[in-house]
Amino acid sequence: MSTIDELSDCMKLLSDKTRLTIMALLREKEMCVCDLVDILQTTQPNVSQHLRKLKLGGLVHETRRSQWIYYSLNVENKPHLHSLMQQLPSMREQLAARPIMKCD
């Protein structure tokens, strides 16, 4: 069971629109920073900073594949987030509307 402090920290992390959007995108599939930069139309340092905070908060995993780091959700052991994640709007249309990119 989570403490009040842990829940408060988690809610603070998700109170940012960009981080909440990243969580919604990662609910659809794992992604690398370049994918998120393209979809969010922001800078790589900005996305990396948000991902760093989500990782430190234990909400995302990172997996290295060659030179790229891919991010995925880490909410399986956080039951307090399950209903919130179900309420996030689907990002399938945004993902389908973009051309397939290869990170450089």
Topology:
Blueprint: H1 4-14, H2 17-28, E1 31-32, H3 33-40, H4 44-56, E2 60-65, E3 68-73, H5 79-87, H6 92-97
Antiparallel strand pairs: 1-3, 2-3
Helix pairs in contact: 3-4
Short structural description:
The protein is an alpha+beta fold and 104 residues long. It is 57% helix and 13% strand. The mean pLDDT is 91.
Keywords:
alpha+beta, 3 strands, 104 residues, single chain, 6 helices
Description of the molecule:
- The structure is a single chain.
- With 104 residues, this protein is an alpha+beta fold.
- Helices cover 57% and strands 13% of the residues.
- The chain is built from six helices and three strands, in the order H-H-E-H-H-E-E-H-H.
- The protein has helices at 4-14, 17-28, 33-40, 44-56, 79-87, 92-97, and strands at 31-32, 60-65, 68-73.
- Helix 3 (33-40) packs across helix 4 (44-56).
- The protein is globular.
- The N and C termini lie far apart (42 Å).
- The model has no long low-confidence stretch (mean pLDDT 91).
Order of helices and strands: HHEHHEEHH
The percent range for strand residues is: 5-15%
Which strand order do you get reading across the main beta sheet? 1-3-2
Number of strands: 3
Q: Number of helical segments?
A: 6
**Oligomer state of the chains in this structure:** single chain
